[in-house]
Design a protein that fits this description.
Layout (H helix, E strand, L loop, with lengths): L4 H18 L22 H13 L17 H13 L9 H13 L2 H12 L5 E4 L15 E4 L3 E9 L9 E7 L10 E7 L5 E6 L8 E12 L3 E2 L5 H12 L2 H11 L2 H12 L9 H27 L9 H23 L16 H12 L10 H12 L5
Parallel strand pairs: 1-4
Antiparallel strand pairs: 2-3, 3-7, 4-5, 5-8, 6-7
Helix pairs in contact: 1-3, 3-7, 4-5, 4-6, 7-9, 8-10, 9-10, 10-11, 10-12
Bound molecules: flavin-adenine dinucleotide.
């Protein structure tokens, strides 16, 4: 059923009023965001209240069907909600691998039983997921993966190793690509399974980064168990499911929020004023001003192109086009943090220097984000590999 322009305006007015009344002050601006993990206890009262209210309304997953805990919003309504949240600087109440990756994939490929068991728990922020795809030697060439799952009646026994498993140390469940037919051609012997992380057969070892943090892990399986009821799609057809999940990861409404709200040019101008004591209208360096404007134009064009592709896909997620989002979006993120770092000059070296007391919290987190976004052109499939996909699947060029 199509929604008229005036109905959308009514929705905008109601949404604005609801947010004004129910988004607590402590849920606006930077701060903690739940990822659903049962192992991370959030303590900030406003963050918890905000989560509770958004769960009740189905707006942790605004465009999922209501029967699975969603808000049942159309794409247009969802976009309005995001715009109204951005206008008051409201943080998302929940941001997780559940909402952005496995949830949409289960909506498309999951059995009714899988949807009923897993989706409402994601929507209610009761569970966080991790992604068991990459293996040592199987990153870009993911289909060469060798973690083996063997049929044991009502369950599979899994043996092997995954690597770079972000958040595995606080995840409750993993979605995982496993080899179920070692004799078939490599893309055809893979299945997509779900398994709980808290079991004897799963061992998580943190990988320490140069910063001392450990965001990702090696994950080892020794007779780990995945129930047959948690095989998603058909046996040996997991490549199709796994690829679709990657398209969700690289695309969609989530990235409209990420790219839109956080990294706009006004935050750079505000930082220029703060760092340099300048009026934003009189940024001194014309070359730098040109770069700022170029960034802002590219950012806006990107968001519009992304929105058009989402609209054209009529509620679904665009397919191989998401590789364009991934390449362009990650390069924009890197440009944003480059511009920020250059503007800060020596103030941009916090966290790299030994004496961090000399830097403000936002300077320190800026340096960390600049470092972190170096990885954006690698994770979720490196940009070189995305360019191969664009050449083949979007432009139709020969192999
Ligand atoms: C921050 C971060 C978080 C991550 N989180 C997860 C996670 O949660 N779960 C998970 O499963 N994985 C995760 N990964 C792993 C990520 O998916 C892989 O790093 C990525 O797919 C690249 O694989 P690789 O590291 O094995 O590099 P390789 O595949 O060894 O590639 C090395 C280089 O060769 C280039 N290259 C390879 N093949 C080609 C080709 N055909 N054409 C042109 N160039 C090519 C690549 O672009 C790259 O520059 C994460 C990675 C990072 C950085």
């Amino acid at each position: 059923m199509s929604v008229t322009a005036s109905e959308l305006e009514d929705f905008r007015a109601e949404t604005r009023a609801w947010l004004a009344e129910y988004c607590p002050p402590g849920a606006r601006g930077p701060g903690p965001v739940s990822n659903g993990s049962s192992k991370i206890k959030l303590t900030d009262a406003d963050t918890l209240l905000w989560l509770e209210r958004m769960v009740e309304r189905g707006w942790t997953v605004p465009n999922w069907p209501r029967e699975y805990g969603g808000g049942g919003l159309s794409n247009d309504e969802y976009l309005i909600l995001l715009q109204e949240m951005a206008a008051i600087n409201a943080r998302p109440a929940l941001s997780s691998f559940g909402t952005s990756m496995i949830g949409p994939t289960l909506l498309e490929f999951g059995s009714e039983d899988q949807k009923q068991r897993h989706l409402p728990r994601i929507a209610r922020a009761e569970v966080e997921w991790c992604q068991g795809y990459s293996e040592p030697g199987s990153g870009s060439d993911l289909a060469s993966l060798s973690t083996r799952a063997v049929d044991h009646g009502d369950h599979f026994l899994i043996n092997g190793q995954k690597i770079w498993t972000s958040g595995a140390h606080h995840a409750d469940w993993m979605f995982c690509l496993v080899r179920t037919d070692p004799d078939a051609p490599k893309h055809e012997g893979i299945s997509f399974v779900l398994l709980p992380m808290d079991q004897a057969g799963v061992e998580v070892r943190p990988i320490r980064l140069i910063s001392g943090e450990s965001r990702f892990n090696e994950t080892f399986f020794t007779d780990a168990v995945a129930d047959k009821a948690d095989l998603v799609g058909e046996l040996n057809k997991g490549w199709t499911v796994g690829k679709r999940l990657l398209q969700h990861e690289r695309s969609g409404m989530e990235s409209l929020v990420e790219g839109g709200a956080k990294q706009d040019v006004m935050s750079l101008v505000a930082e220029a004023k703060r760092c340099l004591g300048m009026d934003g209208a009189h940024l001194a360096d014309p070359a730098y001003r040109d770069e700022l404007l170029k960034y802002e134009m590219d950012n806006r064009v990107f968001r519009l192109a992304q929105r058009r592709a989402v609209e054209e896909s009529e509620g679904g997620t665009p397919g191989a086009v998401t590789s364009i989002f991934k390449v362009y979006g990650s390069e924009l993120q890197q440009t944003y943090y480059d511009l920020m770092l250059r503007m800060r000059g020596v103030r941009g070296f916090g966290d790299i220097m030994s004496d961090n007391d000399q830097f403000t919290g936002s300077e320190l987190s800026g340096t960390r984000e600049w470092l972190y976004y170096r990885a954006a052109s690698i994770y979720s499939g490196s940009n070189e590999v995305q360019r191969n996909i664009i050449a083949k699947r979007v432009l139709g060029l020969p192999d």
